[in-house]
Q: What sequence folds into this?
């Protein structure tokens, strides 16, 4: 299913994806965070290229990560639910589904070009044995979980950093091209930081976590430089979805000037901080307005490895190398999905909302608010509002906060919506939805007997299988 | 009234204040504006020092500018009203008052150190002859007004740029120290740009104006460098109040992640973009969290000229040179006034609101909204809410958007409010309010016979004097 263009080259470019968890667009100094506490990331941007218009493929962890590793929208790769309309679904302990074997993951493909692949941190594509990362192309997998929920102290980021440095050293020593997927989670609630970073940020615990990540990224980049492989290693930093405003301020970050956060298809839910770094290749201080997507990391990584993307299926990611190396701009839309529904589409600077929803009144009345302090009439709705015949249109250049609807009667509206509606038609006409993987939950599939449970006398017997529709409230 | 420390030194440092009108904290790329269209200002920041916590002294033009030029809070220098409680007042055509003769303005003081002073653009400290800038220390005054309201086209920024360049050249040629107060207004509604900038921004007309300003600032800095006087010229860029969200998106800017805008004492109304530039003196790439104020530009400028501030009156500005040159942090509070009322106080990262108000329900119901798309319960109130006995407390590091009130019962609240209340007591105990200058309006004082009216046959006869209380709705 894939065209191998050149075979494993001796000088294949290493790939390091630094994927944050729930970090928002506005969390870095380079993106205007008022405390400006990310000197290493800001420096990474100054030496590389800043992407200002970079998106995830879902406002929630699991589908976003599935999209990144497959280069395909969740609605294609199965990481969505049809249990309800426009519902965000993920992979809790009792989920039955996971990443289908039929999906080709980035590490599987890179393997054929001689790469050694390691995932450090969060996988989130299914818990059952058949969904294990080592079954889907990764050669190594490292994760740990110990967090002191009361103090927020945990040295996990240090462990993840050390794992990354060791892996890089080992691969460099062995002259092996590598793919490192550093999927750490210190900025996901419960947020944590190591002792030496606790209390060091102006921003509280969340900021401590960001500072530790910033420090770690600096160390990884420096390590690459010290090993003399920075010019043969492509590094990309981004996040899996917008900041979880529901957990802010102690446990959640910032989406800068954008509307709402995680769980929503407003800019705050899906626009991500993004930096590409590759000394000697990427001109320093670059800034790109390319509409980018985490799915592009799939295609771009293949390109770096000298591989062609699979030709037997629709790939949504595009190869960004021309953008990154030559400053080109590629015309392409961004599709904002929530579960099984295409909620909005961006083309150029226009964004059309075909459906609006933050969450239900019922949830909202319990204090669950995806848009705290923000409320745009007719936009941040608490009922699912259909606008498929007359989409709400916004100009993200003049109005990045999605506050000022463009008048239905205007010429500008006519022109933009006609264009976007054409893109939607084309998209829908060719869309083959995957089997939804996030429909069924069953307590029997949970890990009742984790490794080592015998010693602790804590092994539990799995209950009888009782598959049910998972409940996805929003 | 002033202690002259050294007399006019041959090598006195020139001073250029670039004061924007209604430009918001979030309007520059360096402050996270998503279109990142201000390469010259971003470069200025990279070569100089970025101030992230810099404030105006009033969320409205006239009082802010009076504070800048006197180094004193509007409630001291008279630029406020007592016609209503906590009302923003300014200097419309029919205002009777203006800057009192008893106030000592920065250019008056600099004059004694041999400076030549020029104001280009907006004065706004009173229209009547006794309030003219040439009566208050300026040697030259240039302003123009022609704007095509339909297209937004006007070449005023180019005229103001040329005036600035010419003035600088002339002073350099004459070896004269100078103070240039470049108070342009392209970002104040009606927003305008020159033909060559119209339509060039992703952000629409407002962005066109910002791009032209950015280009002009670049040209001014380059001019200083080409004349070889950049090392003897201190340049400071800031704005007079927060972005006017009421005019957004076409005629108003962005306050980034902050709450509300112009007219309010929330961060969006009073926190300003700020950059200090002085090659060879300010270390490049500096970032400061000093709590700064436009009033500090008064004291800092005097210091640069080798002058002591007046000792016969309370000066609110502080000399920032230690901050700028040595990276020191000076402990000082920020007082957020609205008219005659102290609405809020910031000390360190804490901000206490003693009064909350955005605008009246009556105004709001007419669509006048100072916080579009934003609403924080109990904070962005539409009635004037008093909290003087139990102020609302926010931590601007964790919560720059003023959305998450710190619990009244917490230890953190006790500690912070005790500290801030002490500062308030001290402030109020020594406060001597000035005679309010913005109470009385009279159509008779308007300029009925502008220069040249005879030729056009458009001279009008002033009506009988009929002084009234000015009406300040918010
Ligand atoms: Ca996430
Ligand atoms: Ca103003």
A:
């Amino acid at each position: 299913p894939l065209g191998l263009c050149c075979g494993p080259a001796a000088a294949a470019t290493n790939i390091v994806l630094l994927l944050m968890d729930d970090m928002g667009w506005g969390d870095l100094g380079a993106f205007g965070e008022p405390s400006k506490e990310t000197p290493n990331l800001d420096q990474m941007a100054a030496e590389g290229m800043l992407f200002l218009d970079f998106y995830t493929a879902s406002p929630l962890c699991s589908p976003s990560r599935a999209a990144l590793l497959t280069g395909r929208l969740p609605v294609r790769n199965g990481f969505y639910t049809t249990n309800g309309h426009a519902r965000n679904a993920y992979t809790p302990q009792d989920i039955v589904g996971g990443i289908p074997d039929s999906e080709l993951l980035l590490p599987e493909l890179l393997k054929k070009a001689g790469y050694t692949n390691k995932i450090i941190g969060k996988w989130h594509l299914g818990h059952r044995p058949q969904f294990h990362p080592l079954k889907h192309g990764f050669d190594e997998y490292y994760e740990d979980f110990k967090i002191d929920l009361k103090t927020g102290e945990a040295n996990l980021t240090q462990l993840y950093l050390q794992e990354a440095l060791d892996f890089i050293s080992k691969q460099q020593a062995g002259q092996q091209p590598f793919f490192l997927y550093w999927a750490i989670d210190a900025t996901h609630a419960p947020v944590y930081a190591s002792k030496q970073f606790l209390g060091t940020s102006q921003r509280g615990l969340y900021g401590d976590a960001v500072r530790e990540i910033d420090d770690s990224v600096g160390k990884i980049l420096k390590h690459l430089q010290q090993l003399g492989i920075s010019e043969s290693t492509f590094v990309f930093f981004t996040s899996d979805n917008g900041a979880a405003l529901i957990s802010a301020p102690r446990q959640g970050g910032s989406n800068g000037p954008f509307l709402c956060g995680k769980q929503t298809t407003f800019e705050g839910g899906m626009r991500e901080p993004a930096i590409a770094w590759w000394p000697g290749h990427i001109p320093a201080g670059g800034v790109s307005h390319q509409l980018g997507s985490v799915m592009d990391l799939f295609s771009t990584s293949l390109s770096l490895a000298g591989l062609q993307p699979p030709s037997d299926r629709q790939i949504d990611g595009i190869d960004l190398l021309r953008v990154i190396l030559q400053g080109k701009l590629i015309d392409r839309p961004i599709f904002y999905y929530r579960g099984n529904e295409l909620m909005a589409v961006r083309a150029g600077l226009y964004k059309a909302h075909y459906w609006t929803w933050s969450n239900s009144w019922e949830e909202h009345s319990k204090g669950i608010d995806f848009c705290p302090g923000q409320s745009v009439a007719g936009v941040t709705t608490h009922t699912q509002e259909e606008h498929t015949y007359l989409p709400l249109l916004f100009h993200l250049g003049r109005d990045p906060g999605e506050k000022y609807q463009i008048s239905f009667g205007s010429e500008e509206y006519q022109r933009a919506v006609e264009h976007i509606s054409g893109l939607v038609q084309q998209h829908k006409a060719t869309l083959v939805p995957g089997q939804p993987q996030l429909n069924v939950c069953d307590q029997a599939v949970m890990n009742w007997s984790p490794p080592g449970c015998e010693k602790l006398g804590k092994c539990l017997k799995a209950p009888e299988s009782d598959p049910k529709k998972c409940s996805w409230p929003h």
